[in-house]
Amino acid sequence: MPRLMASWCFILILYFLFPLIFPKITRNLASGAPTQLTNIYSFTCSDHIKTCSDFLYQHNGLSKQNITNFYSVNASALEPISYDDRQDYLVTVPCTCKDVKGTVGYFYDTSYKLQLHDTFENVSNHIYSGQAWKVGGEEKSYHAGDVVTIHLLCGCVEDEEKTVVT
User: Fold this and answer.
1) Distance of CA 15 to CAs 5, 11, 20, 157, Å?
2) Which of 99, 100, 77, 97 is nearest to 89 (CA)?
3) The pTM is what?
């Protein structure tokens, strides 16, 4: 019994200390999404393409109904894909070149109703597969029940034969 408790203590210590020691490689265990959102970049806008159709990779185990609600799309925009033993989805969205608080790039905007204790990182990782663009002030400006715009990274390419999966 003491050996079993020592093992659990070691696992708990590792669970809480590992992110502090190795923050760049820490992964969210539930979703596989990075908890550090500082190393993501928007696609540079093309002079020729302002809007295109893009696929957002949704891998958080959400139901089809939740995905359509969170991404503001119809069920026809979801394409199921299997990965190992889980069901993921490609969500087809219109991707547009725009300026989001000084960052010009390709984005898809959707609305999200804030819940109690939401943080930007939790919403981005657990709902939007780490694709939300942080513009600053998210936690300070809003309260539970507020509906906010979520800017999701997407991309367009010059070659019409190719598509982007974000």
Assistant:
1) 15, 6, 10, 40
2) 77
3) 0.72
Output the pLDDT for position 99: 93
Q: What is the pLDDT of residue 37?
A: 46
What torsion, rounded to 10 degrees, do the Cα atoms 80, 83, 87, 92 define?
A: -30
Q: 50 is written with which tokens?
A: 């302002």
Q: Classify residue 5 as left (phi > 0), alpha (psi -120 to 50) or beta.
A: alpha
Nearest partner of 82 among 67, 61, 65, judged by Cα: 61
pLDDT for the residue 137: 61
Residue with tokens 């809007």: 51
Could you say which residues of the chain have pLDDT below 50? 1-37
User: 93 near 56, Cβ under 8 Å?
Assistant: yes
- Residue ranges of the alpha helices (H) in the chain? 2-21, 64-71, 120-126, 138-141
CA distance 143 to 140: 8
Rounded CA-CA distance 73/92 in Å is 8
